[in-house]
Every structure is written in structure tokens, then in C-alpha cells.
């Protein structure tokens, strides 16, 4: 399980470190893809397989299903974890998430998220202000 938030810098070669406490869990390769809310999602290969199987089973006749599958699957790439625990972020994903030098790697249960530092703080402040409303809506869903 991935939990917490960690601040890193993208290096000159567009690599970012996986937090040391997660490296044994992620293995030698991860899948990085476009996430939601202008961040990147990083999945272990096992978690990616579960998600990809669900996306592959969506009905082709539904426009939203096709669009979401494209967003996640066509935007995905395998990334090797180097001996220092870093992964390479390709330009198209770096641009998608508006990543600058400072980034946040957030553990979100079954995935990691990579955020631009400034965007993360804006998102976090908004979420913290709206936490009561979110909790109420989730309560209606039985959470």
C-alpha cells in the first residue's frame, strides 16, 4: 500500500525518484500514464494489469468508454526503475502534467501520483477546503 507525499526534483534527464520505502514494492518496472486532475499515475505491473483488463472490457460502442481507455492506455509507458530508484518521465507525460523542476510523489493506496509541486499544493488546498462536502457525498455512497 502506498501512502504519503514526498517532494523531489526532476533531474536534468527528466528522471524522478520513487520514494525509498516503496522501491521494493514497485519492482524493476512500473507503468506511467496520464492521470486525472493533471497528474501522472504510476502503477506496479500487477496493478496496471488489473486496470488494463477492466479498461479493455469496456464497451467500444460508448464514446466515454473509448475516450477514457485511450487516455489511460495510449498514454501509458513502461518505465524501468534504475539502480537509484528513479524513473524517466517522457516529454509528452511531463507536458501533460505540467511538471517543472519540483514535483510531489503522492502515495494513493494502489498507485503513486506525480504532481507538479505548485499544482499539488493548489489542488490540496482546494480539497482540504471542500473535505466536508466530499465526505457528505461519499457518505451517500456508503463510504
CATH superfamily: Transcriptional regulator MraZ domain
Assembly annotation: single chain
Strand order of the largest sheet: 1-7-8-4-3-5
Strand residues, percent: 25-35%
Q: Main sheet?
A: 6 strands, antiparallel
Rg, Å, rounded: 16 Å
**Which regions are unreliable across 5 or more consecutive residues at pLDDT < 50?**
none
- Which range best describes the helical content: under 10%, 10-25%, 25-40%, 40-55%, 55-70% or over 70%? 25-40%
Kindly provide the name of the CATH class: Alpha Beta
Could you report the average pLDDT, rounded to the nearest whole number?
Answer: 95
In the CATH hierarchy, the architecture is 3-Layer(aba) Sandwich
CATH topology: the name is Chemotaxis protein chec
Number of DSSP helical runs: 6
Task: Give the H and E element order.
Answer: EEHEEHHEEHEEHH
Principal-axis shape equals globular
Q: What's the total count of β strands?
A: 8
Structure description:
With 143 residues, the protein is of the alpha+beta class. The chain has one domain: Transcriptional regulator MraZ domain (Chemotaxis protein chec, 3-Layer(aba) Sandwich). It is 40% helix and 30% strand. It is built from six helices and eight strands. The strands form two sheets. The protein has a six-stranded antiparallel beta sheet with strand order 1-7-8-4-3-5. A two-stranded antiparallel sheet has the order 2-6. Strand 7 (102-109) and strand 8 (111-116) form a beta hairpin. The two termini are 19 Å apart. The relative contact order is 0.23. The mean pLDDT is 95. Keywords: Cell cycle, Cell division, Cytoplasm, DNA-binding, Repeat, Transcription, Transcription regulation. Belongs to the MraZ family.
